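Input record, target 12 of the design panel.
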């Protein structure tokens, strides 16, 4: 009887050992699956196909890590502005609605910030020469490293109408001549802005559906 029990124990030990050896592929697969998909990040703002593609291409990664995103705080800042618009002399600090890193790297972060603005500022002639402008909201433009988008948030009384600024900061090291990266960044800012607009209940925000169309490329 003891011999039989010992034999069973040995067989179990061998089975466990073999399972451990053959489980390497599963382990590697689990490692590859770490991180969030584009559809899962920052309340799902990038769940539609064009925005997901823009996020993956902009960051060169299929999966991401959320790094200190504060969507609730960003929304609270904007909601406070709809209750009492800030004075002309006061500009509150924008809040990071979304900040992402590639799942496999500590570098090349991408962030999208929101804050109330007095108005869409327009572009002077020198700035217009080095950015691409897009048709969305009140104003939208981007370089290969940073983009800005402004939209009007019309609300029913007693709330006050406000102008919202979205700023997207992309990974560093992208050449200024990369026009596709500019479109990716403004696509991400636009998608996040659409999500924020819906959460605030904004009317007639003028935000583009899908990928915003360029209206003027840089001339220098």
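The sequence produced for target 12 reads:
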């Amino acid at each position: 009887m003891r011999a039989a029990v010992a034999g069973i124990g040995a067989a179990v030990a061998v089975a466990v050992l073999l399972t451990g050896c053959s489980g390497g592929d599963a382990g590697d697969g689990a490692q590859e699956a770490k991180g969030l998909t584009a559809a899962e990040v920052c309340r799902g703002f990038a769940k539609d196909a064009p925005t997901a593609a823009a996020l993956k291409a902009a960051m060169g990664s299929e999966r991401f890590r959320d790094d200190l995103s504060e969507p609730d705080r960003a929304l609270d800042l904007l909601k406070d502005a709809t209750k009492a618009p800030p004075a002309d002399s006061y500009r509150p600090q924008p809040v990071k609605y979304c900040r992402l890193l590639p799942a496999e790297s500590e570098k090349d972060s991408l962030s999208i910030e929101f804050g109330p603005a007095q108005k869409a500022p327009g572009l002077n002639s020198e700035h217009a020469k080095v950015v691409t402008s897009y048709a969305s909201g009140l104003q939208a433009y981007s370089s290969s490293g940073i983009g800005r988008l402004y939209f009007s948030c019309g609300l029913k009384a007693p709330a006050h109408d406000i102008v919202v600024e979205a700023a997207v900061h992309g990974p560093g090291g992208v050449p200024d001549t990369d026009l596709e990266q500019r479109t990716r960044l403004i696509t991400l800012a636009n998608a996040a802005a659409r999500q924020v607009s819906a959460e605030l209940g904004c009317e007639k925000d003028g935000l583009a559906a899908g990928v915003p169309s360029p209206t003027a490329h840089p001339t220098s």
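The first strand starts at residue 64 and ends at 66.
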